[in-house]
Structure formats: C-alpha cells, structure tokens
Amino acid sequence: MTLDWLLEGDPAIRWQSLRDLADAPAEVVNAERAKVSTEGWGAELLARQSADGNWGGDESNPEKWTSSREWHALTTLAQLRELGIDPHGPQARSAAERTAAGVTWHWWGNNPFFVGEVEPCINGRVVAIGAYFGQDVSGLVERLLDEQMADGGWNCEQENGSVRGSFGTTINVLEGLLEHEHATGGSDALLDARRRGEEFLLKRRLMRRLSTGDIADPAFTRLAYPYSWHYDLLRALDHLRSAGVTDERTAEAVELVRQKQGDDGRWRLEVRHEDVLDFDMGEQVGQPSRWITLHATRVLRPQRQPSPGAT
After folding, report:
1. How far is CA 8 from CA 3, 13, 16, 18, 281, in A?
2. Which residues span the domain enclosing 257?
3. The pTM is what?
4. What was the pLDDT predicted at 62?
C-alpha cells in the first residue's frame, strides 16, 4: 500500500503521512515529528551549520548568487521547515538564532537575514522561515503587503518596471503570509492580501494565462521537489489545502495531478531544479517520489480543516 511505503521513509515523511493521511492520534504524530531533529534528513541538515551560524557557501564568486552564504541559509532553513522540524525544539531554536546572529544579505546593505532583502520572491520565503522559527518578520510582512500589485500578485521584477504579478513570486509570498498568519493570528490586512493573491492564481486556474487561456509555462505542470523558488500546480494546490481554500477553478489542476499517479499508486519526480540545496534525499527524476506522493495524496483527499505548521 502507498501509505505503508510512505511510512517506511524518513521521519519527515512519516510524521506528515501520519497526520495528513492516516489521521493518527496527536501523541503518535508528535512522537514521530520529534525525531526529525535527531534522525535522518533533519539531523543531517542541522549538522551542516557552523558555530558562526552559516550553512556553507562561497562569497568569492559574486556572479553565482546560489553559491552565497545567504542562499545556503535560505535553502537549508526552508528545507528544515518543509521537513516539519519542531520549531520549538532546542535544535531548531539554536539553528534559527545562530542564523539571525551570523548571516547577512551582503549584497543588500548587509541586512540581517530575517530583515530580508529587496525581492518579494526571496522575502516571501524569509517570512515563511522566520514565522515558522519564531523570528520577528513583521516589518518584512508589512513591506510585502505594500508591494502587492493591482492584479493581486507579486513580482520580483516590480523594481524593474513590471506591473503584473508572476506565479512564482506570488506562491512564495502566499506561503510566507500563511505561515505568519498561523504563527501570529494575522490581521485583516494580511488576510485580505492573501485572499487577493490566491484569487490571482485561481483566476488563472493555477497555470493559465489570463489573456489567452494558454498554459503560462509547461514547467508549471511538471512535479518537482524541492521547490526552491519555483512554481508548479501541485505546490499551489498544497498551499490552498493548507489555507482551507476550496474552489471549482482548481478542478483542471487536480485532474492533471490525478492522471500522473502510477499504477502502483505512487507519483514520480518529474524534474529536479538546478538551484536546489545540494542534499541527497534519495529521489531520482523518473522514479517514485515519497515527497510528491505525500503532497499529491493529501491534495486529493477530501478537504479537511487545515493544520498549522509545516505543509
């Protein structure tokens, strides 16, 4: 059975499968979740952090931003959040505090990591990480609310003159706003901005151009993990599930995901983005993916009340 296969995976896969697919008791879920910081992928990622708070990276090549220390911090903490490490545990608290003290955006005025930089696609991810790990990102949230575009989306090219939202930037900001809402209770302004951003995606049926109805980018239909900053329809569906949003305009995307299920009940990893964290979770393109299968299976389940925390 697919659930049995998922439960044979890393603690990060097991605890989310128990919570979202098996409806296991909270004490069982929490016991499995606690293992993320001490076993498997979570423990390996935590061990990468140095005493000064950095997670690796090389500042000697300014042309390659993804080799920088801040990119390594961003992608590592984002992955720990997606693993669902207990943010209140001592290991997670220490990791976040050391990052806050030791990592800066050196190309953007040496801002402290959780102050963020200039691009909303990056800042949305910083908000998601900061809110999850208990850091104060309220100033960054206010900035993102001010930067929402007239069509409800966000775009990293806004500072270069863009007046239209993009799928990729919008999903990164939406995930950040929802995480901040879970952590703080949110505000009317935040809730309004999140709903407008979700409407931006829903109007486009999660993948189509509003102007022509064509698929905006074939990459949106290919299932990837880790996401990094990239957008695809499964990522959008999983966000809407977490936000408790049900809408008939997701039907096409849901059916496309359903059609990708193999005869063995599993979903394959269709693409691996080049800018993701250099970290082996044992998944290969074209092979069954526990991450994709977990995400797809819970998206296809009947809608339930969303659970705060890792999604």
Report:
1. 9, 9, 12, 12, 14
2. 218-311
3. 0.94
4. 56
